[in-house]
């Protein structure tokens, strides 16, 4: 749930989603679910010349399984908090494993 | 499902003109599809095989061009109209002839109608939308597209060819054959199994002749062809004045079991769409037989589907209404099947029926008005249909299910409002919960305990990447405060110029002249010395930074223990019970005591994890200082201080001061007189230390009394002061200590003894520091970024005696003059900034750079 929790805080921020087929889509993150499916608005493809078929698309829903990377807006990430959240997550997982 | 890819073609089919010609064919093709789905082999009665193909020769007569016909079925474009166009003349002639001989021609139609009916029945199931569009588009048919309306006939025939049954001139045998298939449709609606059973049972006795009925609907004249109809049908038909009615009644009579099912209606309606086709059929009444095979598939359509798409039926009905010929016949039939229609369309039916039945008796005007009305109604109904096209597709259970899923996801996405801020949601969703707290996003629960967490991270200063909020607090705040303190001290010193020694002023000026001429030799000599010194510690530092694998691991692990303990403590803080209201509140007091006990346990655990009291390994670094060499160790400092007692903090401060020259950020970050050579990692380290650790220490130091401050200064003096002074962190630490003493002095704090002790310490510091003074500046004068040195110098100058100030000036005069000289070549803002830094120092000793210029 850490990633879900994390991405929820990025809602309404500009992110770039890199898909497994190498397409990079930049847009405003509108929603994310526990599968890390992503809904972007106001999108633009980074290499538009190469992938012109998306140039008319404004909103997009991306299945989480096809996402390779999400480029984060660094300013929107609270690093110490994220570190602690990670520790908690690790502790949770360890607790569950036992 | 579709062999021919009709699905993709459908939009085109719905167009006007050509589309109308194609539409019926599309319906037929759908039939084929359905037959496939229902296992055509099982339901096919082999009628096609019985067809007499001996007269295929006459196909030319029918189609005008044999080659065209054969080609059409294979291709995907099915250009029937094109084929027909070739014989347009003939068709026109036939049209005219048809108009004249209408009665006769239509009499011949019945054969075709069944097939049409079947196809119609099919359509709803497989291609609801396309069919409806077609029907909609067919409304305007009355407005000049009659010719196109007639085309479908040709298609029907071609379609027959598709099946390879080229079925002309089988009239004699048809009636019997037709009856069987038509009967099947009605039966099959019961269920596939039932249908099959019935089929087997009844196939041999094709008594019920629904087939003929569609034909009669088309034209009143059908009555003139009793040959096709069964006696029963006629009995029903004759009482009514309209031809179409009888056939339907006949159906009712024949198959009383099925009236409740919508299928008959569908079949009945179909003919109307086709009804325009008769003209072309006239020459070839035999088109019907080939169609029969298709009828069977059609008959299998489950009744429910038809019911679920009632609008299709209504659509047909509307179309029928618009078609003068077809309308009257069909409508009368509806009353017989009240249950077939959805309420919407059904309610309309009786009305239509009543009027349509009178249609023939109406005057032209009335008719026109009526038709107009009907057209409006049809339009409206079509709209309703469009909107409710998918009515009934989902059962209430389906809807509930979907709603549940949506609710679940909603809860998952936003968190259950009930458990907001609870431990579970915190455990699962920690980052989001706290982050939104910090950002102020969710204030629904302003008083919830999460605020503790928010506080923790809100004021955390460890992250340099933090957003603007962190820039406004924490380190900046601390630096500003420190600068303000320095500034205030300098101001105070300036306001009461205790040392207005013109000598110094003069000497400064003098020295500056000479220095301006020959500054280099002096610098060169010293540079060599510093260079040698610098290298040694930096190599030693390497050792610290790259501890052996085991050490590093254990150190990192103990840092993690520190962090997890800190988190436990923060969690624990959250659950702090309210202090007992009064002495009687034993329970509350107990809880409070228990809580305090737990807190102390945690504190002990933290203290142990910090390893402050661990033995220092031989020649190594103190374990705690080692922890501080890791960035996350540095970041933990502030949180550690929040959860430790004053004594513990003092211990930590002492420990740090004692090991000041062992800190990686001091040993590894020695300034040089050349360009700054620190690598990026070390620069980052220094930055992090000054941002994460220094403010914490500064805040703590500001609470200390003078004697403790003097003690700290004494500790510093015991260390390698040169090394300390030549690092940014060390210099800042000295600044901190001195500024605290200055502020105590200004506040009038500190006892006489304490001040005496302080003065002694200060003198010792000054003596130790004097040789290092000229080498404290980072880089050359061009480098800039030496503000912290000027701050330290200023504080030293404030506390210094006149004699010490003189020595101070002598020590740094080079740098002062260089900076002043340099600032003349710099842009105004930059020059102002640099001179301001220098002035910090100059003011502290009662001077100003203005005097040098």
Automatic annotation (TrEMBL), chain A:
SUPFAM superfamilies attached to this UniProt entry: Sm-like ribonucleoproteins
Q: What is its main location?
A: nucleus
Give a yes or no for keyword RNA-binding in this entry. yes
Q: Which GO terms describe its cellular component?
A: catalytic step 2 spliceosome; Lsm1-7-Pat1 complex; P-body; precatalytic spliceosome; U4/U6 x U5 tri-snRNP complex; U6 snRNP
Biological processes per GO annotation:
mRNA splicing, via spliceosome
Q: Which UniProt keywords apply?
A: mRNA processing, mRNA splicing, Nucleus, Ribonucleoprotein, RNA-binding, Spliceosome
Would the keyword Nucleus turn up in this protein's UniProt record? Answer: yes
Q: Where is the signal peptide?
A: none
- Sm domain mapped to chain residues: 2-76
Role this protein plays: Component of LSm protein complexes, which are involved in RNA processing and may function in a chaperone-like manner.
Q: Which family does it belong to?
A: Belongs to the snRNP Sm proteins family.
Q: What is this protein called?
A: LSM complex subunit LSm2
UniProtKB/TrEMBL annotation, chain B:
Keywords per UniProt = Cytoplasm, Nucleus, RNA-binding
Region (Disordered) residue spans: 200-225, 238-311, 532-552
Q: Which InterPro entries match?
A: Pat1-like (IPR039900), PAT1_dom (IPR019167)
Q: Which organism is it from?
A: Echria macrotheca
State the source organism's domain of life: Eukaryota
Provide the mRNA decay factor PAT1 domain boundaries.
Answer: 1-850
Question: What PANTHER family has UniProt attached to this entry?
Answer: PROTEIN ASSOCIATED WITH TOPO II RELATED-1, ISOFORM A, TOPOISOMERASE II-ASSOCIATED PROTEIN PAT1
| Localisation | Cytoplasm, P-body; Nucleus
GO BP, sorted A to Z: deadenylation-dependent decapping of nuclear-transcribed mRNA; P-body assembly
Keyword Nucleus part of the UniProt annotation: yes
Bias type Low complexity, positions: 206-221
Q: Which Pfam families match?
A: PAT1
Which family does this protein fall into? Belongs to the PAT1 family.
Recorded protein name is Topoisomerase II-associated protein PAT1
């Amino acid at each position: 749930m850490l990633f879900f929790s994390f991405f929820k805080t990025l809602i309404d921020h500009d992110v770039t989603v890199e898909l497994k087929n190498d397409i990079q889509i930049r847009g405003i993150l509108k929603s994310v679910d526990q599968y890390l499916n992503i809904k972007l608005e106001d999108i633009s493809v980074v290499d538009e010349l190469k992938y012109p078929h998306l140039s008319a698309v404004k909103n997009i829903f991306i299945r989480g399984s096809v996402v390779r990377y999400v480029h984060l807006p660094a300013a929107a990430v609270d690093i110490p908090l994220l570190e602690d959240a990670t520790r908690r997550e690790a502790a949770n997982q360890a607790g569950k494993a036992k | 499902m579709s062999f021919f890819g009709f699905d993709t073609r459908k939009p085109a089919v719905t167009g006007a003109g050509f589309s109308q010609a194609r539409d019926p064919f599309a319906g037929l093709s759908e039939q084929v599809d359905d037959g496939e789905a229902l296992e055509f082999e099982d339901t096919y009665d082999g009628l096609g095989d019985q067809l007499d193909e001996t007269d295929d020769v006459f196909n030319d007569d029918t189609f005008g061009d044999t080659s065209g016909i054969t080609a059409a079925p294979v291709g995907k474009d099915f250009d029937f109209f094109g084929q027909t166009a070739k014989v347009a003349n003939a068709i026109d002639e036939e049209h005219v002839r048809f108009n004249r001989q209408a009665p006769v021609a239509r009499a011949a139609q019945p054969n075709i109608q069944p097939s049409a009916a079947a196809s119609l029945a099919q359509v709803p199931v497989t291609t609801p939308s396309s069919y409806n569009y077609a029907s909609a588009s067919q409304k305007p048919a009355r407005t000049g597209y009659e010719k196109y309306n007639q085309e479908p006939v040709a298609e029907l025939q071609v379609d027959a060819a598709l099946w390879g049954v080229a079925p002309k001139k089988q009239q004699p045998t048809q009636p019997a054959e037709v009856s069987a298939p038509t009967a099947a449709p009605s039966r099959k609606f019961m269920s596939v199994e039932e249908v099959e059973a019935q089929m087997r049972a009844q196939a041999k006795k094709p008594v019920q002749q629904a087939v003929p009925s569609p034909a009669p609907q088309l034209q009143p004249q059908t009555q003139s062809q009793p040959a096709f109809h069964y006696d029963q049908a006629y009995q029903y038909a004759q009482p009514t004045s309209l031809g179409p009615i009888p056939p339907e009644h006949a159906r009712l009579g024949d198959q009383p079991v099925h009236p409740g099912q919508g299928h008959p209606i569908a079949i009945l309606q179909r003919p109307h769409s086709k009804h325009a086709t008769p003209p072309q059929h006239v020459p070839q009444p035999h088109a019907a037989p080939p169609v029969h095979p298709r009828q069977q598939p059609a008959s299998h359509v489950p009744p429910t589907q038809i019911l679920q798409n009632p609008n299709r039926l209504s659509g047909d009905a509307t179309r029928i209404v618009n078609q003068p010929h077809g309308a009257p016949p069909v409508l009368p039939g509806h009353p017989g099947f009240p249950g077939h229609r959805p309420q919407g369309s059904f309610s309309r039916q009786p009305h239509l029926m009543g009027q349509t039945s009178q249609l023939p008796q109406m005057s032209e005007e009335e008719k026109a008005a009526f038709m107009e009305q009907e057209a409006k109604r049809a339009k409206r109904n079509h709209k309703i249909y469009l909107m409710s096209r998918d009515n009934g597709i989902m059962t209430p259970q389906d809807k509930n299910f979907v709603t549940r899923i949506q609710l679940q996801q909603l809860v998952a996405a936003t968190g259950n409002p009930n458990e907001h801020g609870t431990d579970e949601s915190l455990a699962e969703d920690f980052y989001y919960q706290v982050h939104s707290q910090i950002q102020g996003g969710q204030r629904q629960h302003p008083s919830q305990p999460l605020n503790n967490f928010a506080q923790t991270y809100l004021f955390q200063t460890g992250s340099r990447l933090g957003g603007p909020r962190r820039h406004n607090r924490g380190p900046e705040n601390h630096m500003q405060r420190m600068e303000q303190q320095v500034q205030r001290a300098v101001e105070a010193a300036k306001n009461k110029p205790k040392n207005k020694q013109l000598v110094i002023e003069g000497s400064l000026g003098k020295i500056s002249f000479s220095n301006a001429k020959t500054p280099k030799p002096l610098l060169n000599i010293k540079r060599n010395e510093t260079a040698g010194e610098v290298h040694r510690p930096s190599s030693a530092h390497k050792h610290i930074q790259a501890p052996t694998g085991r050490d590093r691991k254990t150190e990192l692990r103990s840092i993690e223990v520190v962090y997890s303990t800190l988190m436990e403590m923060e969690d624990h803080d959250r659950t702090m019970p309210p202090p007992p209201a009064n002495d009687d509140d034993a329970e509350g007091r107990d809880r409070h005591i228990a809580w305090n006990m737990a807190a102390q346990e945690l504190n002990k655990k933290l203290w142990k994890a910090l390893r402050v009291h661990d033995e220092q390994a031989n020649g190594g670094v103190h374990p705690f200082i080692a922890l501080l060499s890791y960035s996350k160790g540095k970041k933990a400092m502030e949180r550690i201080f929040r959860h430790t007692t004053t004594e513990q903090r003092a211990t930590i401060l002492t420990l740090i001061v004692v090991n000041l020259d062992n800190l990686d950020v001091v040993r590894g970050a020695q300034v040089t007189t050349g360009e700054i050579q620190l690598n990026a990692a070390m620069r980052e380290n220094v930055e992090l230390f000054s941002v994460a650790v220094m403010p914490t220490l500064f805040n703590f130091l500001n609470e200390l009394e003078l004697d403790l401050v003097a003690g700290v200064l004494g500790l510093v003096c015991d260390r390698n002061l040169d090394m300390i002074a030549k690092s940014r962190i060390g210099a800042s630490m000295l600044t901190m200590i001195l500024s605290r003493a200055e502020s105590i002095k200004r506040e009038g704090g500190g006892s006489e003894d304490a001040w005496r002790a302080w003065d002694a310490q200060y003198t010792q510091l000054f003596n130790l520091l004097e040789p290092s003074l000229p080498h404290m500046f980072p880089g050359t004068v061009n480098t800039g970024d030496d503000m912290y040195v000027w701050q330290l110098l200023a504080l030293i100058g404030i506390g210094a005696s006149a004699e010490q100030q003189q020595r101070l000036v002598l020590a740094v005069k080079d740098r002062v003059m260089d900076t002043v000289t340099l600032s003349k070549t710099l842009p105004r803002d930059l020059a102002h900034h640099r001179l301001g830094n220098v002035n910090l120092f100059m003011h502290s000793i009662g001077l100003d750079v203005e005097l040098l210029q």
